[in-house]
Amino acid sequence: MEELGKVYQLIIPVFGYNMTLNLDAILMTWLVIMVLIIFGFFAARKKSVLPGPIQIMGELVVSQIYNLVEDAMDKERAEKYGPLICALFMFLLLSNWIGMFPHLHEPTKDLNTPLSLGIMGFCIAHYAGIKSKGFKKYAAEYFEPIFLMMPLNVIGELAKIVSISFRLFGNIMGGSIIILVVSYLTYSVILPPFLNAFFGIFVGAIQAFVFTMLTLVYISVQIK
Amino acid sequence: MGYDIQTWVNVAAYMGGALAMGFGAMGAAIGEGYTAAEANAAISRSPRATGEIFKSMLVGQAVAESASIFALVVAMILLFMNFSAQSYLTVATVFAAGLCMGLGAIGSGIGSGFPAGAACTGMSRQPGMSNRLTTNMLIGSAVCQTPSIFALVTSFILLFTNFSDRPISPTWAALLGAGLASGLGAIGSGLGGGLVAQASCEGVSRQPESVTPVTNIMLLGQAVTQTTAIYGLLVSFILMFKSFEATDALSPCAALIGAGLCMGIGAIGPGIGEGFTAQSAVAGIARNRSAISELTRLMLVGQAVAESTGIYSLVISLILIFVV
Most buried of A18, A132, A139, B61 (most Cβ within 10 A)? Predict the structure, then answer.
């Protein structure tokens, strides 16, 4: 059971502070990025009217997500934010699924990955809000309904980062802890494949979708 | 107090196991009963679909049962694993783990019953849609189980992490508070998530062609409904992994237990309330698909307002942990 909560760390001292790098998460993130780049390369290499299997997969993902984005905002903005949302979904999906392979770990199991993606979505949403409404109107929203609510409104906005990132982190890490503990208790007989199918494929796909949808909705709420 | 540590650990493990299974049995039974009642009503409406309805009732009840199976697993671990007693902290961890899983199973058990019942009713209305309805019900009830999975994670961390190098005095309170925050916090969100999934199953049976938007908005609404359970998980993580300074005074201990209680109880109301909001938003989208963007926006704004009380609880419990 020593694996529970074990993290491979590289600690670099910088000016009296310790810079800690979680090697597992970083390597796995790079792996996911590389697989996605290779997938993208092969999906777009020979574009034809009669698509090959990889092109079909790419078109399926991209067109489904573009439809979602167009539902949430107008067509012009959808073209701007669509690629971001699409890349986010594909990255999260592959990140959540990669833990099913032996010796590989989900990068989303490390809180730093969901947290940084959450902060990224938060910054983009507020940038989009300021850009479309102007700073004055954007700032005035924090003083609704009365002036005194300002600190709580700010905390409420910041709590969105906590909730979006902890939702992904809690589900993925929870799944991996449950798989680890149950495999240990049952000596890895019978149960682990089913648990991997549920927590890896099913919960992983749903949480990737939920994270993407929430980022999209945060952006579209700020715009209008 | 003439007993040794091992006796106290055993006492706490048995008590924790009993509480885990006792509380954990409550929710799932209510949910399953609701499902069966709806299935009976559905069969009386269209006796020809009996086979489909019966199958869907059993599948739905099996999913609703999973929360109490988690509780059973934790209770079994507590009863049959020999916890080596290193310090009095083990007493706190085993008791908190049992309490956390027991309380955490209540909401999801009741909640998962709602979509299963709605799926049975839906099949009596539209027997041709039974596959779509079953898929939708399974997705909805699986997401509904998330709060109880958070409670399970917290109790596994409590059971299998070695806390023995921490100072006993404030840490026992922190661990107990961690169990309470995750356990109580899961009740409301589990119940609320079930309401949302119920509306989506009803919607699919009314308007089979709007299955995609209904499922999407259901997932979104359930995700936002779980926010307060996530705050509970956050507070328990802080309580479990922050190292507190050793102290003999009683007041820091009270503050730490209070932090857990505050976040746990404070999360119940917002979870249910946000569930109501998302429930009628999903029902609205099933009726009138063209209003999807207005309904989604209104749902999110309404949920944000309903959630503000949960944020007050989060602020107070963080103050209790870090300031007081």
Answer: B61
Residues in B closer than 8 angstroms to A220, CB to CB, are 297
Over residues A177-222, the pLDDT tens digits come to 888 888 888 887 888 888 888 888 888 998 999 999 999 988 988 8
- Looking at domain B5-322, which of 1.20.1440.230, 1.10.600.10, 2.170.190.11, 1.20.120.610 is its CATH number? 1.20.120.610
Question: Given an 8 Å threshold on Cβ–Cβ distance, is B150 in contact with A174?
Answer: yes
Residues of the domain holding A153: 9-223
What is the spatial distance between Cα A52 and Cα B85, in angstroms, rounded to a whole number?
Answer: 62
Is A2 contained in some domain? no
DSSP designation for B126: -
| Beta-bridge mates of residue A17 | A14
Cβ(A154)–Cβ(B222) below 8 Å: no
CA distance A157 to B311: 10
B220 to A5: CB separation less than 8 angstroms, yes or no:
no
Please list the residues that pair with A11 across neighbouring strands. Answer: A20
Query: Which of A4, A71, A181 is opposite residue B292, by nearest beta carbon?
Result: A71
Amino acid at B312: Y
Summarize the confidence of residues A52-69 as an average pLDDT.
Answer: 88
Nearest CB to A163: which of B142, B213, B230? B230
Best probe of the B interface among A181, A184, A220, by most B CBs < 10 A, is A181
Q: What is the pLDDT of residues B156-191, one digit of tens each?
A: 988 888 887 888 888 889 999 999 999 999 999 999
Identify the three-state secondary structure at position A10.
strand
- Answer whether A162 sits within 8 Å of B149, measured CB to CB: no
Sequence ranges of the domains in chain B: 5-322
SS3 of residue B147 by DSSP: helix
* C-alpha distances out from residue A72 to A77, B90, B217, Å: 10, 50, 12
Tell me the C-alpha distance between B251 and A15, whole Å: 39
How many helices and strands in chain B, by DSSP H and E? 10, 0
Q: Report the candidate in B169, B47, B158, B60 with the shortest Cα–Cα distance to residue B104.
A: B158
Rounded CA separation A25/A30 (Å):
9
For residue A18, the cross-strand partners are A13
Size of interface A-B (CB pairs under 8 A): 88
pTM listed for this prediction: 0.88
DSSP B207: -
> What CA–CA distances, in Å, run from A111 to A7, A108, A200, B269?
12, 7, 17, 27
The beta strand positions in chain B, using DSSP E, are none
Residues of chain B neighbouring A72 (CB-CB closer than 8 A): 293, 296
Find the largest Cα–Cα distance for chain B. Answer: 71
Q: Which residue has the tokens 């802080």?
A: B238
